[in-house]
Request: fold
Amino acid sequence: MLHTQSLTTFTTVQEPPLDTSLIVPAEIERIRRVIADYQAGWLAEPLFRRFRLQQGIYGIRNQTGVQMVRVKIPYGRLTATQLETLAYVAESYASGHGHVTTRQDLQFYWVPLGQVPEMLAELSRVGLTTREASGNVVRNVTADPLAGVAPDEAFDVRPYADATTRYFLRNPLSQNMGRKFKIAFSGSPADRAFAPIHDVGAIARIAAVNDRTTRGFDIFVGGGLGATPRLAHRLEPFTPEDQLLPTIEAVIRIFDRLGNRKNRNKARLKFLIADMGIEPFRDLVLQERAVLPLINASPYPPFSSEHVGWTAVPHPTLISPANEHTRTAADDPAFRQWQVTNVVRQKQPGYAAAFVTTPGGDLTAAQLRRLAGVVRRFAGGELFLTISQNLVLRWLREDELPDLHLALQEIGLGAAGVHRPANVTGCPGADTCNLALTTSHRLALELNRRLGRQPDRYLSDDLAGVDIKISGCPNSCGHHHVAAIGLHGVVRRVNGRQAPHYRLLLGGRIRKNDAVLGTPVTIIPACNVPQAVERVVSLYRNGRHPGETFFAWLDRVGAVSLKDAFSDLQTLPNPAENPQAYRDWGQETAFTVQVGEGECAA
Reply:
């Protein structure tokens, strides 16, 4: 059954139809049987662990019998009906909330193992699967959340992301790789999907091939963050669209054949390319691609718009209740600020897209359900998740933006400041992850709260693009390496006690067909990180030249030169005088390092 609960009779919008073509019903029954066998003691833990990870089912730090379940959401697209089912799942099986990830997924915590099959069955009814959301497989294929409406895009990349998802999902080729594999699609050189940090990143481009204008891609290979970050290499000058899937398949085949299977820490594609060099790797890929037509028995899926939502302007019929009063921009300064920071104009005249910030990536069941009503009323019945843990609503009528902002405020999602310091990205951290050293999620929430209370200081135009990203360990699940202000958890012993700290990196960003990794500057105790972030902004404003951007200032002065500016924040008091300084964010007990076997390492 579908779990719909309308807030009002705001609309009679024709919602995008449900697509269940990614679902294999027999698969859920198999999961039910395997879980029963495991609980009966008939299946060994290592075998069960491998099986459940391939189904997007994770263990939770220091917990037995409950799971984290990750829902795979190709290129981040969700319909209103799917949002309602996700709300039902959150309150019926999980902790009552979902968490948006940096791969446009949505994951749920504290799900009893025995209830996982019922949860997956609910998701499958609306076309949502967890298959290959984790494991040594092709992970969720991500894409620019503005694809199809961005003024700067070469063309809409959603059909290509969709076809890539369909081709590699359950593909025998990618079921037993040495390590996970990540693919992203961007529609323009602005690269809102971060192509350089992926195993395969594809940036849309139109070029002349044999005197004909042809759609295609700049393809980059071998990127990845983690404890040893590497930026991707351009594979070839231009890849026509008909060679997209053969090229990705050839890369995967070479990786599967030659990748390191003895050392998990060296098993990603980036290490294979570093060892052999990009030129030999390129030669192997092109040779492999040339023979694929001779060995592939089935055709590649078409680049169809059938599964990607609206292909033209949606025309919802809006019905406002009698007591609904349309707001104007003059009614609320908070709206005007939100409009400046969160709203972008679409390439379609008269329409806009809006970024919706989610504190720490968290959405409660009530918010998910009420979002369904919001997107039906304003956005043609769908929204998109982003890799910065935000949401995007599209096809918004510009005259309705004030009412949209009011509706978002009513559900706690109307904050301004997307891609500014108060909009912090953070991984789940030590609350749930076995590898995390620190409670990065709690720190992200604290920074959101603290900086968001000072909009004049931290949401201003001079800080546009100055983002904060946090990881609970060096593995960079929070993308701290490519943040203007990046932080990752470390541990230091101070005054005979273990204490949580963060390494501060400055200057990371994605540029046209390129990226810059943040420069490590210093290490700060966790309790002093908010002051350190505030100081970074003060140093910029006090030291910049007129009109100088944050990144231009940082490139001029050099990030390392700022190290001494944080020296007073690096010390901790005697633990007997201030034990709280030795605790992690959100914790009431003494800090101790607890690192287990990782299931989600980058």
User: Anything to note?
Assistant: The first strand starts at residue 57 and ends at 59. The longest helix spans residues 278-295.
